[in-house]
Write a structure and sequence with these properties.
By secondary structure, the chain is α/β, with parallel strands linked by helices. It contains ten helices and four strands, in the order βααβαβαβαααααα. The protein has two domains: 126 residues, Rossmann fold; 55 residues, Arc Repressor Mutant, subunit A (Orthogonal Bundle). This is DNA-binding response regulator, NarL/FixJ family, contains REC and HTH domains.
Length: 201
């Protein structure tokens, strides 16, 4: 893999250290004075950009929107979920803390260039929780299923419901999980809220 790479950081030693870590994948490391203009080149380009303050976030957003074939990786001065989300939402192909290890730097770089993203689990969980809405459904539960929902709303345990329905507890959990999915609910709480909204219970 050979790509043109620019590293933007206020510390020259840091820039050169990052370039040295990626030495085997660089055609020629570059230090353009105008990143916005450099990003618009026709060939494949990667920018590793340290984001420290408002101007850095603005530059990140501009670079991610630049016409051309550019991949932007944010190097975060402050490592927290909010900053990861902000970088990804701005259009960064990857993000990592500025004090990342050589192995992690190379892994995030390779993933971004290959069209993937490596992110901490907490960041992925935060992304998964955003904007997820129930899918409306026309599937009406059976009388028996409404009874199960009513029992759950009244605090009856899944074990007791299973016993009354003639199923094992494990099978009952599976049936309830399938019911929640058919209703477009992610969990029991959402299923019960939906059932109340539709006057089933």
């Amino acid at each position: 893999m050979s790509v043109r790479v620019a590293v933007s950081d206020p510390l020259e030693m840091f820039r050169h250290g990052v370039m040295a870590c990626l030495g085997d994948v660089l055609i020629e490391p570059e230090e353009p004075t105008d990143l916005r203009r450099w990003a618009q080149g026709a060939d494949r380009r990667v920018i590793l950009l340290t984001v420290r303050e408002a101007a850095g976030w603005d530059l990140l957003s501009d670079l991610c929107q630049a016409p051309g074939n550019v991949v932007v990786i944010a190097m975060l001065e402050e490592e927290n979920v909010a900053n990861y989300l902000r970088a990804i939402e701005a259009g960064a192909a990857g993000a990592m803390p500025r004090n990342v290890s050589k192995a992690e730097l190379r892994a995030v770089f390779r993933a971004a260039v290959d069209g993937s993203t490596l992110l901490p689990t907490e960041v992925v969980q935060a992304l998964a929780g955003r904007g997820t809405q129930r899918t409306p459904t026309t599937d009406h539960p059976s009388t028996r299923e409404i009874g199960w929902l009513r029992d759950l709303a009244n605090g009856v345990t899944v074990g007791r419901i299973a016993e009354g329905a003639g199923y094992s507890e494990r099978m009952m959990f599976r049936l309830l999980r399938d019911l929640y999915a058919r209703l477009g609910a992610r969990n029991r709480t959402e299923a019960l809220m939906l059932a109340r909204e539709r006057d089933w219970i």
